[in-house]
Design a protein that fits this description.
By secondary structure, this protein is of the alpha+beta class. It has seven helices and eight strands.
Length: 215
């Protein structure tokens, strides 16, 4: 009987130790997740076809991820086919998750306004429709103020021959696009659209923003 009691006591000791260890590990994981969340922020931009600029934002130092998707519409969980009709109110856009210690929202705005034409209403090149509008989706008043200030300064500077028509809209809901839209350029570099439409934009961007690229 004594041996059984001793064994049971030892087992309980091991069990208690394992529980405490698991709790410590869980606390550590939670702290790591919270720390990671605290060191990132997000920005959402519409620059026309998301295929064209996804690869550009992916190359910026400090950018953690870029997700192609839809925002600004009235239909829940829209499909690409629905958005292409121009009747859902959504814009093709990119959600950029970034580290503010390495790249600022202001710098992302600078890139945003230089990698597409913000003066063509509901159009980028041959892509026509409200789904291709130039838009900044702000997630708080700070982002809204910065976007409005930058837009006003661009308009005043006369950097473009025509007025800047970029809309500045509140972020309500972002819906990730279908899987085949994600990482499109990198997964389809040999396709004609990637070679003749996206690649020239990417090369131009690399020259202008050389100092901001990932090493």
């Amino acid at each position: 009987m004594k041996m059984i009691v001793l064994a049971a006591t030892a087992f309980m000791g091991l069990f208690t130790g394992a529980v405490k260890s698991a709790q410590l590990n869980n606390n550590s994981m939670t702290e790591n997740i919270n720390e990671q969340a605290a060191t990132t922020d997000s920005a959402t931009f519409g620059t026309g076809c998301f295929w064209c600029t996804e690869a550009i934002f992916q190359q910026l130092e400090g950018v953690k991820s870029v997700t192609s998707g839809y925002s600004g519409g009235q239909v829940n969980n829209p499909t690409y086919k629905q958005v292409c009709t121009g009747t859902t109110g959504h814009a093709e856009c990119l959600k950029v998750v970034y580290d503010p210690a390495k790249i600022t929202y202001d710098e992302l705005l600078e890139v945003f306004w230089q990698v597409h034409d913000p003066t063509t209403l509901n159009r980028q090149g041959n892509d026509v429709g409200t789904q291709y509008r130039s838009v900044v989706f702000y997630q708080d008043e700070t982002q809204k103020a910065k976007a409005e200030k930058y837009k006003a300064e661009l308009t005043k500077s006369g950097a473009w021959d025509n007025p800047v028509v970029t809309t500045i809209e509140p972020m309500v809901k972002f819906y990730p696009a279908e899987d085949y839209h994600q990482n499109y350029y990198n997964d389809n570099t040999s396709q004609g659209y990637c070679q003749f439409v996206i690649r020239p934009k990417l090369e131009k961007f690399q020259k202008v923003f050389k100092s901001k690229l990932k090493h």
